[in-house]
Specification:
By secondary structure, the chain is mainly α. It has 15 helices and no strands.
Length: 299
């Protein structure tokens, strides 16, 4: 007990009080300047002409079309990235094969390529003068300047988020539990459902939250492939830009405030997930392992 108290005392007295308070003050200042103040400005401008003007801006047909398209794009992109992220993380973390480093590089590619460049690539491939443009036009298939192009661009810029959350988690966990499940007679699907998925569920949820937030807020790649067609191919970020360029500041900030609300909801969900994960980790540290028994019963 004396050693524990001495260790705690040393940790508490490592830095002087003025150093701690200075660092805390700098952190709070940055949070206020770059997070709280911009959010307050968005909502202040959105409500500058009253709640009536705010609601009218959100009721406008083009705004509804942009909101609907944003939600549809996220609803398609996130599940597809969920499947890809789990598959890619499983391959990279659980297996050794030729081309593994190349696959890892491909997963990181959207982080290093500008979203605008990604959008231009899709225009080059699927545009009217692109590689597949004449064939698509002959078969009356629209990719660029239509919803499929927006979905493809969103998938490209968001697909690393889930995989990158899961890869280090799976690598740290190793293969021992999966091998034990297979020895007990579990099939591949049973091993994944009863062993792997419970181990990665919090990282998976966290990755899905980040992926969804980026999908709803993506601007660069979507701007290139959308064509900015009002009421058809404008997502919420693009609609905000158009309104602001037309000097409709109240309407622009009203839609922007909705994006900000979605971001705040995402932040709350992220915090809840982190809290649940930490709570579960504390409970698991005091509880005996039960997963092999569960796998055996499932088999």
């Amino acid at each position: 007990m004396a050693t524990s108290n001495l260790t705690t005392k040393r940790v508490k007295t490592t830095e002087a009080a003025w150093v701690r308070w200075t660092l805390i003050g700098i952190a709070l200042l940055f949070v206020f300047l770059f997070l709280v103040l911009p959010l307050a400005a968005v909502f202040t401008e959105a409500l500058r002409k009253g709640a009536g003007a705010y609601l009218e801006a959100l009721k406008e047909p083009d705004a509804w079309a942009a909101i609907r398209l944003t939600l549809i794009t996220a609803a398609i992109a996130v599940p597809l990235n969920l499947v890809f992220g789990v598959a890619a993380a499983w391959c990279i973390a659980k297996y050794e094969f030729r081309g593994k480093a190349f696959l890892t590089t491909l997963v990181d590619l959207p982080f290093s390529v500008s979203p605008v460049v990604a959008g231009l690539i899709y225009v080059l491939v699927f545009g009217a003068q692109g590689w597949f443009g004449p064939w698509l036009a002959a078969h009356d298939i629209k990719i660029v300047f239509a919803i499929p192009g927006i979905v493809l661009a969103t998938i490209f810029v968001t697909f690393p988020f889930i995989a990158r959350e899961l890869i280090p988690l799976m690598q740290a966990q190793g293969n021992e539990e999966e091998q034990a499940a297979i020895v007990l007679g579990a099939s591949g699907w049973q091993t994944f459902w009863y062993v792997t998925l419970p181990n990665i569920k919090w990282g998976l949820i966290y990755g899905v939250i980040l992926c969804n937030a980026r999908a709803m807020g993506e601007f660069g790649a979507v701007s290139v492939v959308s064509g900015h067609i009002r009421g058809q191919t404008n997502t919420m970020p693009l609609h905000v830009e158009i309104l602001y360029n037309e000097y409709q500041s109240v309407a622009a900030f009203a839609v922007a405030s909705l994006l900000a609300l979605l971001a705040l909801v995402t932040l709350v969900i992220k915090s809840v997930v982190e809290w649940r994960h930490e709570r579960e980790m504390k409970l698991a540290a005091d509880a005996p392992p039960e997963r092999p028994l569960q796998v055996k019963e499932a088999v």
